[in-house]
Design goal:
It comes from Mycolicibacter acidiphilus. The protein is 70% helix and 0% strand. The chain is mainly alpha-helical.
Amino acid sequence: MMTATSADATGSPGKQAARPRPRRQSLYKGDPGMWAFALHRITGATIFFFLFVHVLDTALVRVSPEAYTEVIATYKTPIVGLMELGLVAAVLFHGLNGVRVILIDFWWLGCKYQRQMFWAVGAIWLVVMVPVVVRIGMHMAERFGWIGHGL
């Protein structure tokens, strides 16, 4: 007594029917939750790096106050000013998104509204960052002599 197999059904023993393989999809498909997760990790790592450098350069004061003064003087450049702006943006997003993560974890409707909360975090971040950019930009313009000191 014989049983039918897929090889028997195709008519050629020992070979299976050639089926197109399904294309493997990426685990991440661009969902806002994925972007929130990625940005939270990136901003967290950025803040950690800043704190690490800050502790090192502050500890330099104990070793050599003159070296500390020289290191701090190198920070007074437009590039570092932009990095300061980026740090403010990272801390603000990380904090707001952290509140969102807490709400997802502890609010019984958190998972249902996580997408709307992500867009709310983005809107609040934008509303706060606009005046921050203006203020830090004015400070940088004064510090680097791009505009008069009368502001």
